[in-house]
Amino acid sequence: MSHNRVDRRVQRTRQLLHNALLALIAEQGYETITVQNIIDRANVGRSTFYAHYQDKEDLLVSELDDLIYSLSWDVETLPVTDGEKESHRYTLSTLALFRHTQEHFSLYKAMVGGQGIDVVFKTTHTHFCRSIQAQIEQLVPDGGTPSVPPAIMAQYLAGALLTLLTWWLDNHMPYPPEQMDATFQALAMPGVWAVLGIQPDK
Amino acid sequence: MSHNRVDRRVQRTRQLLHNALLALIAEQGYETITVQNIIDRANVGRSTFYAHYQDKEDLLVSELDDLIYSLSWDVETLPVTDGEKESHRYTLSTLALFRHTQEHFSLYKAMVGGQGIDVVFKTTHTHFCRSIQAQIEQLVPDGGTPSVPPAIMAQYLAGALLTLLTWWLDNHMPYPPEQMDATFQALAMPGVWAVLGIQPDK
DNA sequence: ATGTTATCGAACACCATGTTCGATAACAGT
DNA sequence: ACTGTTATCGAACATGGTGTTCGATAACAT
Predict the structure, then answer these.
(1) Could you tell me which residues come within 8 angstroms of residue B101 by beta carbon, excluding any fewer than 6 positions away?
(2) Is A187 touching B (CB cutoff 8 A)?
């Protein structure tokens, strides 16, 4: 009767493939990974792989969804002290992002540092854009019309932020996340305030 | 005796391959191009290709050197009115860059727009970094020590600038280069001034 | 217990890569 | 024009990864 049968095998297979991919990315980088490598590591048959994903990029993208979801969740719930929150009324909430990145250093370094993975950049940039644009629009004063559309500001800021994150990872995180956040805010926000026509006096 | 013999054939061959690659990139994008495509288009033998370059990325990189050289030359010599120059004493010289990009729209769009080419991004970013860092260091007040190292500021600004350029190309250049330059300056420079501790009163 | 469905893995066709090598033709110098 | 050199050609080849097919097997839900 019920066609809602959920075969436990498919979830298990997908999980094995995901884990194998992440492990391989951290070990040897993405480019040189072959489908054979993935299925060997995961102990999954060749035809089974292609029954689930078109190719290794398809697997990566499906993986990315999970990662970005966990990132969003972390950024919204990671402990940020009240004092930090208070002083950030007119800024973007990027401190938790730097802390999250620090915690997943080896994986993220393999994904965006060094040669990096193209699709990871694009996807992350798109995600940053959405989040930043929403925050920008909350800063726009009532009745005001910014001289630069928020969408463009978001593009700009997401690119700058991603660049800074990449640099941080590539250079083995020479500064603590708090300082990276402060650097980003110091470089980014004065321009945003000027364009929006607001003057936050600290 | 003289081993300085320069065979005209090798220059011709390299030129043919370069032209073929650019044409194919503009037509169908970089990823799907095969070595066979390149040598067919260029009317060059297979073994000849591999006598000159290791693979198609090697050819692309050698191409990039030329492109960045021509870009540098353009940026330094493209006509910029005295008025524009005057008002840019405390800013970065990016206006010529936007104009240069506009002139080579179709090629640059294929190279950094859409799917883009990874190595083009990296190389361009590195080049921007060098140029911007030099300009930043000229803005540092005598005796002052910026709270953020110029190298990091250059990373940040190069990434932001490249992102803005990419967006511009991807969206079919909805604004003139002058406005794009103004947008970049408005978003970027207040942060730079604040970090450097200078206050340019226009 | 039963019918269903996911997995396995070997075998396969396919395609791009990068190399080899002998023949040919363009080259520079005299 | 002659000569020795060198770049080019292109066919042939080995290599390696890709994505598919299919019959057998085992895990699944009911």
Answers:
(1) B108, B165, B168, B169, B177
(2) yes
